Amino acid sequence: MIAVIDYGVGNLFSLRSSLRSLGLEAAVTADPAAIRAADRVILPGVGAFGDAMARLNESGLAPVIRAEAARKPLLGICLGMQLLFDKSCEYGEHAGLGLVPGQVCPLAADLADPALKVPQIGWNALRILRPDPLFRYLRQGEYVYYVHSYYAKHCAESTLAVSDYSIPVTGAVRSGLAWGTQFHPEKSGDAGLRILQAFAEL
């Protein structure tokens, strides 16, 4: 069973629907016992980093996530991926879960082409930098769907894939049993479903 963590941030039910369309058992839950009992965990999210971390800390879910990431596959999606990092500079400096080395920074400040819009919204090709089981059903250059204004930096050792947005934007990362995608697999059509299927097989 895959536990989709519900901490009040994000459209969890579209993600659950995508998982169920693949025939995968998934439960949207904030119950630590259910998260511990699950075979795999997904941390989704949209919105502000600081607010999301505050909710995880206040609910007691932050230490549960850290502990479970040491013993089973965890996938962070969009803001969920950003929360895996050491810290974020979004509206001040906020500590993250510390599962992936690096930090989350404003995309607009680093773009080589200032005419590009932020947030980055839409489809972009994924350039896989290193092989990983998460990409076992994915081909080089397939398109995935992004919606974000901040991105992960100083994480080259953990970066699995990037997308070009005048600069290489971190698209997917891995550290130990913690994976993250800045893009939304559940909004990325067939390619995204194949990524979720691969995650279910990790």
UniProtKB/TrEMBL annotation:
Database matches in Pfam families: GATase (PF00117)
Pathway: Amino-acid biosynthesis; L-histidine biosynthesis; L-histidine from 5-phospho-alpha-D-ribose 1-diphosphate: step 5/9
Gene Ontology molecular function: glutaminase activity; imidazoleglycerol-phosphate synthase activity; lyase activity
Family matches, as SUPFAM superfamilies: Class I glutamine amidotransferase-like (SSF52317)
Superkingdom assignment: Bacteria
Identification of the protein by name: Imidazole glycerol phosphate synthase subunit HisH
Organism of provenance: Candidatus Faecalibacterium faecipullorum
Gene: hisH
Catalytic reaction(s) noted: 5-[(5-phospho-1-deoxy-D-ribulos-1-ylimino)methylamino]-1-(5-phospho-beta-D-ribosyl)imidazole-4-carboxamide + L-glutamine = D-erythro-1-(imidazol-4-yl)glycerol 3-phosphate + 5-amino-1-(5-phospho-beta-D-ribosyl)imidazole-4-carboxamide + L-glutamate + H(+); L-glutamine + H2O = L-glutamate + NH4(+)
Catalytic center residues: C78 (nucleophile), H184, E186
Entries under PANTHER family matching the protein: IMIDAZOLE GLYCEROL PHOSPHATE SYNTHASE SUBUNIT HISH
One cellular component (GO) term of this entry: cytoplasm
Source species taxonomy: Bacteria, Bacillati, Bacillota, Clostridia, Eubacteriales
Stretches assigned to the Glutamine amidotransferase domain: 4-197
NCBIfam families according to UniProt: IMP_synth_hisH
Listed GO biological process terms: L-histidine biosynthetic process
Assembly and binders: Heterodimer of HisH and HisF.
PROSITE patterns given in the database record: GATASE_TYPE_1
Gene3D superfamilies per the UniProt record, alphabetical: 3.40.50.880
